[in-house]
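Aim 2, interim progress: modelling of the protoporphyrin IX containing FE-bound target.
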Amino acid sequence: MRLHYLTLLLLLLPLEMSTIYGISTEESVPKKSSKSLLPPEAFLSIGHYHTTCPDAEAIISQKVSSWVKKDPTLAPAIIRLHFHDCAVRGCDGSILLNHRGSERTAYDSKTLRGFQLIDDIKGEIEKRCPRTVSCADILTAAARDATLLAGGPFWEVPFGRKDGKVSIAREANLVPHGHENITSLIAFFQQRGLDMLDLVTLSGSHTIGRSTCSSFMDRVYNFSGTGKPDPSLNVYLLKLLKKRCKRVMDLVHLDVITPRTFDTTYYTNLMRKVGLLSTDQSLFSDARTAPFVEAFATQPFLFTSQFSVSMVKLGNVQVLTRPNEGEIRVNCNYVNTV
Ligand code: HEM
Ligand SMILES: *[C@@H]1O[C@H](CO)[C@@H](O)[C@H](O)[C@H]1NC(C)=O
Ligand SMILES: *[C@@H]1O[C@H](CO)[C@@H](O)[C@H](O)[C@H]1NC(C)=O
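Predicted structure of the complex, ligand included:
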């Protein structure tokens, strides 16, 4: 163990030197006008509510826990809701807005769930610290707590997101549906500051939860218009899906082997052609992402530690943190009236 730390120190030393070097040469490079160059997520912090609403996190975790105990399917639902929030206009609670023409009312949002849980949390927090905690922050922390309850890792959530005032139904269509090719998935993540490692890691959320048959039926009966099944679909899974999918709205577990456990079976499934969505399976078919799949399939600790890192990155996507941006909504369903 000692030796390990020593090696680490030796590895870090050159880094430290370059930092010092960087500072010492600052005068020779053009001066950065520091503040304006800070990215919006730099204004988030773990201690954001420590003085203004010290019980916020406890309220959130207690509520998530009691709802998930009654209905375990809410854990994956909340994690997905957080992704759909961050994927459109950043993590700004725009998915929660429930007015006519909002993202939430779109056809593409019809299988999103967990809104009542967020409303219940918000109601309790408003009683304790009115107009202080944003809906975007509540959803972010709830997704972390849901992960933990499903058997996944814990991580510290940086807080300080404001809630957005804009939500447009047609933008819900931007979120990948499960039919995209790997190149467009990579591009979608990249546009949000997430790389290929984040793509493979966050897709690991599909180790729990369910999908409607409509999201993958083309793989079973008519793949790419060939009139044949997807050749990258395991034949036993193919048989199972034909049996399970009588109607397009029937539900199938995304990880058919260990559907309720937050583990790396999602990745071993991909190596055996047992991925449910074609987008899941494509992570293993493509040479750019396959090495990450293999690494996670064989080293569970690597997955859980990277999942924490990638979820923090997801929660930082295009956040509203500047004084004139966004608001603290009083009701997560509506933009404030005054
Ligand atoms: C890589 C692109 C992604 C695609 C194409 C995708 C696609 C899908 C689809 C089609 C479903 C099933 C929807 C239905 O038919 O009911 C689903 C469910 C789910 N997704 Fe994703 N997803 C992606 C990324 C993510 C990310 C980044 C997360 C979280 C960080 C996530 C979390 C979930 C969860 C937990 C479920 C299960 C929801 C439930 O059981 O209620 N997905 N996803
Ligand atoms: C991937 O999908 C995009 C968008 O639909 C399309 O423009 C592109 O040609 C596709 N790429 C490949 C390699 O199939
Ligand atoms: C399969 O899909 C193609 C194109 O999407 C369509 O033209 C064809 O009629 C479909 N075949 C069957 C058997 O549904």
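Residues 181, 183-184 surround 2-acetamido-2-deoxy-beta-D-glucopyranose (ligand 2) (CB under 6 Å). The longest strand covers residues 210-212.
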